[in-house]
UniProtKB/TrEMBL annotation:
<keyword id="KW-0804">Transcription</keyword>
<dbReference type="Pfam" id="PF00356">
    <property type="entry name" value="LacI"/>
</dbReference>
<dbReference type="GO" id="GO:0003700">
    <property type="term" value="F:DNA-binding transcription factor activity"/>
</dbReference>
<keyword id="KW-0805">Transcription regulation</keyword>
<keyword id="KW-0238">DNA-binding</keyword>
<protein>
    <recommendedName>
        <fullName>HTH lacI-type domain-containing protein</fullName>
    </recommendedName>
</protein>
<dbReference type="InterPro" id="IPR000843">
    <property type="entry name" value="HTH_LacI"/>
</dbReference>
<dbReference type="InterPro" id="IPR028082">
    <property type="entry name" value="Peripla_BP_I"/>
</dbReference>
<dbReference type="GO" id="GO:0000976">
    <property type="term" value="F:transcription cis-regulatory region binding"/>
</dbReference>
<dbReference type="InterPro" id="IPR001761">
    <property type="entry name" value="Peripla_BP/Lac1_sug-bd_dom"/>
</dbReference>
<dbReference type="InterPro" id="IPR010982">
    <property type="entry name" value="Lambda_DNA-bd_dom_sf"/>
</dbReference>
<dbReference type="Pfam" id="PF00532">
    <property type="entry name" value="Peripla_BP_1"/>
</dbReference>
<feature type="domain" description="HTH lacI-type">
    <location>
        <begin position="2"/>
        <end position="56"/>
    </location>
</feature>
Length: 323
């Protein structure tokens, strides 16, 4: 296999001249440039992309640790990341973790080895000490509130959203208010905030009203079966996703109940599902968070940017029910 020395020898130029041609430097004589390109074609010489990136001191690639992508929240976030990265001529390396700390930790070496120019952290299990150690090797940006002040982040104020939703439900006069989350309170900061907000506003024990491990439509159907199997059904339910809310609505129907006649429900992420089924949903503007996170990562700025949420209400009709 031909190398850069072979090209230089056959073209009758220095290795430095070949390197300038490869990197498209402007100040190379046209005849030498043409000779080098001709020899490269003759030898079927291909550039070592890793070597070129190493010589330039950057890879034009950013890494994104994400638990999974079959979720509307992460789909919107990734969409924003990809859009902005494309605008800035960067590639994106998606690093799925499935909330396994060992896997997330292994991805940190990509930054340490300079295989990526920066790292975005979405939802993860990394401890503050791990993030702090990682930040010594290169720039990272959290797409949620980071516990380390010196680490830049772009994030929604989830606690303010939870307070707003539970206050709304309480002011409506609802007494039996249930809520769902993804991970349990031991592993998820957002779940702990959800419980804290519930306790501050509703001021009642939450154990019988709280259901974790809810991630998608099927999980919604599962917890809906528990909620509507008893004679005392909830007045209102605050879910951690529109898919979960849709699953609960479907499950309610199988037990003889219907939305919005028999209960209130509020979702998250403001997807088309909430519009079709006519239930309110919290919009965290994840696409905007993804875009701003990439811009922040590739800049010299170290900021903590908070994105305001929006609680969107829908017109409720009989068509809200799933058939």
């Amino acid at each position: 296999m031909a190398n850069i020395k072979d090209v230089a020898r056959m073209a009758g130029v220095s290795i430095a001249t070949v390197s300038r041609v490869l990197n498209e430097y402007p100040h190379v004589a046209k005849d030498k440039q043409e000779k080098v390109l001709a020899v490269m074609k003759e030898l079927n010489y291909s550039v070592n992309g890793n070597a070129v990136k190493l010589s330039k001191g950057k890879t034009n690639t950013i890494g994104v640790i994400v638990p999974y992508n079959n979720n509307s929240c992460y789909d919107e976030l990734i969409n924003g990341i990809l859009k902005k990265a494309h605008e800035l001529h960067y590639q994106v390396l998606l690093l799925p973790s499935y909330y396994e700390n060992v896997i997330e930790s292994s991805y940190l070496t990509l930054l340490k080895k300079k295989m990526i120019d920066g790292l975005l952290l979405t939802s993860h299990t990394l401890h503050p000490e791990q993030i702090k150690a990682l930040a010594e090797w290169g720039k990272i940006v959290c797409c949620d509130a980071c516990p380390i002040e010196l680490v830049p982040s772009v994030f929604p104020d989830r606690f303010a959203a939870y307070i707003e939703v539970f206050t709304y439900l309480k002011n409506k006069g609802y007494k039996r208010i249930h809520f769902t989350s993804g991970r349990d309170s031991q592993s998820s900061p957002s779940t702990r905030l959800r419980i804290q907000a519930y306790q501050e506003i509703i001021t009642e024990a939450y154990e019988s009203q709280f259901f974790d491990q809810c991630f998608d439509f099927q999980d919604g159907k599962r917890v809906g079966g528990i909620m509507f199997r008893n004679s005392i059904v909830p007045d209102a339910i605050f879910t951690n996703g529109d898919e979960v809310a849709a699953g609960i609505i479907a499950s309610a129907q199988t037990h003889g109940y219907s939305y919005p006649q028999d209960f209130e429900i509020i979702g998250e992420e403001n997807t088309p599902l909430s519009e079709i089924l006519g239930f309110p949903s919290v919009d965290y503007h994840q696409t905007a968070i993804g875009e701003q996170a990439v811009s922040l990562l590739l800049s010299d700025e170290y900021a903590r940017i908070q994105i305001r949420h929006q609680l969107n209400f829908r017109a409720r009709t009989e068509a809200s029910a799933l058939s």
